[in-house]
Specification:
single chain, alpha+beta, Beta-lactamase, five-stranded mixed beta sheet, 10 helices, globular, Peptidase_S13, EC 3.4.16.4, carboxypeptidase, protease, hydrolase
Amino acid sequence: MKNLLYILLVTLTFTACRSSRALLTKQLDNKLSTPFYKNQFTGILVIDAETKDTIYDRESDKYFIPASNTKIFTLYTAIKTIPDHIPALKYIESNDTLYFEGTGDPSFLHPYLRDSTAFTFLKSKTNLVYVTDNFQDKKYGPGWAWDDYQWYYSPEKNALPIYGNVVMINTNQGIQVTPPYFKDSVLNMNHTDQRKETSNLFFYPTQGRDTLEIPFITSTVTTRSILENTLNQKITTRPGMPKGTKKTLRGINADSLYIRMMHESDNFIAEQLLILTASELKDTLSGAMARTYILENQLADLVQSPRWVDGSGLSRYNLFTPQNMVEVLNKLYIDLPRERLYTIFPAGGLSGTLKNRFAGNQKPYIYAKSGSLSNTYCLSGYLITNSGKTLIFSVMNNHFRNSTSDERTHLEAMLQMLRDHY
């Protein structure tokens, strides 16, 4: 009799779940059949994080431009290769001389991260030689917009970033410029641009009150000059390390970089994390090498092979599927403790780029990364339902003519359906 009751209970539970899922599928299908979604491309995949059952699938094997959802792949790559404390510098000490090279560490005197590990280390030495030939990448990613050179979200990549590779200008007490090396290169005048395209000449409006962050043009000469000005000592350069075993100076906690990248959608940190990954794999600093390595190893089992060209998602050449996103999110869900995972991702209604959207009633129900370009909005991450289940989801919208705000509003309604009915 007990066995019969158990079988009956299991059957009823299974039937109820199947019925609930069928109703949810119908609701989502109806939502996506409205005129709002008629002239855009939308792909969705939702799975149960524990059972791995597919809850909803719409065009999830199709390729979409991911925008900053690309940073989910960058995050996974960094977590699988970079130690808890990132490599700030690599160096060899010979007699009284310190030979050092960059690793791509973006935190060196970064205006928000404010890490001084490398600065303090170099400041304690006297004869400094900066080794310059390990960077085998380009300043910009393929497909980046050429006219973004002057905007805060598009700093150049290099082996030894300093001050985030941007000039900070404000008027707290007169015009303040960081790094101070550029103080004579800032003109207090109204101009159509913030910086000359081909030189490090910057413009701050006469009635300016905001703090401007303007990328500067990087080069070996510029990096050395900023270092000399900051350390207040002479630095020489050379193309290769002397013979010997390199040592690694460990710097800032890696999670502080991951949180900044994911919460603020920081493109610069995303790009430099791939450079840092390369520094852990070989002596050559190349984002392409880092991407190839992770795709051929830890991500060799992806059902579709993505086209992945940068770390940040600035490029429209990137092509990923919702299945790609869910597969990597699932790997992160398996590998990381929940508290750490949900700290790294922005929380709906609470933090980062989701602070003003996707709020829960009493606590967050969404932990996810958004991605926006013109005519593109994507959101991928984790959803906690009212019943206590965890869903892994990816929603990718391309080629819409509506406002991004309207896209988010319609997406929020669908996510609330999942929260309330699964």
